[in-house]
Amino acid sequence: MASDTTTSGPGPQAGGTRGASAQHDDLVHRVLDDGFLAGDPFPDLARLRAEAPVAHHAATGAWVLSRHADVVAASRDPATFCSGKGILLMEIGASYDSPPTMMHTDPPAHTRYRKLVQPAFAPSVMRALEDAITARARAAVAALPAGEPVDVVAELAVPFPLRVISDLLGIPEDDWPRFYEWSEAAIPGATDWPPERTAELMGEMVTYLLATAAARRADPHDDVISLLATVEVDGDTLDDTELAMFLVQLLVAGNETTRNALSGGLVAFAEHPDQWARLRSGRAGAPPAALDTAVDEVLRWTTPVVYFMRTTTREVTVRDVTLPAGTPVVLHYLAANRDEAEFGPTADRFDIGRTPNHHVAFGSGPHFCLGAALARIELRAMLDALAARFAAIEPAGPVERSMSLVIAGVRRAPMVLTEA
Length: 420
Ligand code: HEM
Prior knowledge:
Layout: H1 17-23, H2 25-31, H3 42-51, E1 54-57, E2 62-65, H4 68-75, E3 81-82, H5 109-117, H6 123-142, E4 149-151, H7 152-157, H8 159-169, H9 176-186, H10 195-218, H11 224-230, H12 240-271, H13 273-280, H14 291-302, E5 307-312, E6 316-318, E7 321-323, E8 328-332, H15 333-336, H16 340-343, H17 372-389, E9 390-395, E10 400-401, E11 410-412, E12 414-419
Bound molecules: protoporphyrin IX containing FE (HEM).
């Protein structure tokens, strides 16, 4: 990349990327179309990486980065590629009185948020959760019917991360059904509820979370709401608006992403029975050896967050394309995670022993996913519990994908699970 922000060399279209992009209008349009993920996106993404690694999207004026090295470099340079002007294409031109999430902030505001919320995600907090998560995973797997078709999305992938986040936040068991409805309302496009209904549910959720935070300030428990409600770093604390923003973000960021990593991962195993056998091999009461590398390969393979956006703060040259200040730039994680330049000739192979595996499913740089350790614990616990019980996972009908451009969603995945 002939850029002042990254170090990799020029692409195959060096000197002609802008021209190549003009020729690739249809391709870029397809890649940024809502239905794109419903089919097989990978041939188009491979073409994009090879022929137009910095590609112009005429409809929005955004430029798409599809190479791993470019996505990483831009993610690590928030001074040039900022988040404060929106992180989704639908936010181009939007302005906010206060940032809707910490993902929409840049240093120094972002650095302050990370400092304040980091304690809630400290390794010791995560370790303390691990036993409860493992117990939840085992109970969910034990409840699955064996030898008959089951939709692993509805039965496993939807409830599990939600239960984990409600445990994390300290939501009482009785409140769980409301919590489920609220979290669905918080995810754009998750339901076909009218906007007034989702707005009403979101309002209810914020009221509930703030009331719980106020109660925990007076009487702290061992949970994340208490930690965040009482956190103090160098005399600094989160005010109620920030607290509500952050708690809602935890729901959205930690729920649908983990759901789709899990359901997409199970689809991958059903389509690659040799990899399921490999995961199970070596089990003799001990966890399978490939579990940790399998979790990262599932993350790379599924890439639940397809892209996030940045906006240039100054003129910058990426490969041979000069982008003026104020240009929206799409960091295409899904394309980057299949880049042969990073993952070699097996980039298109689901290989649960892959190492190294520097995927960008959790992003990179200062906004690197705050919940990455939690998501890894959840996926590990679930794969372990499934591998302990089931010798085979087979497709039992077509997989339905959601029409989102941002979240690589699986709506329905019928499978037959056969006991060992
Ligand atoms: C497989 C599951 C997950 C995936 C694929 C994922 C993906 C991502 C990505 C790509 C980012 C980077 C945002 C950016 O660069 O603009 C991010 C940030 C974030 N994630 Fe996750 N995430 C997952 C699970 C979770 C969980 C379980 C939580 C918490 C409960 C969480 C909380 C967050 C937060 C708070 C941020 C913002 C960090 C910041 O702006 O500094 N995520 N995530």
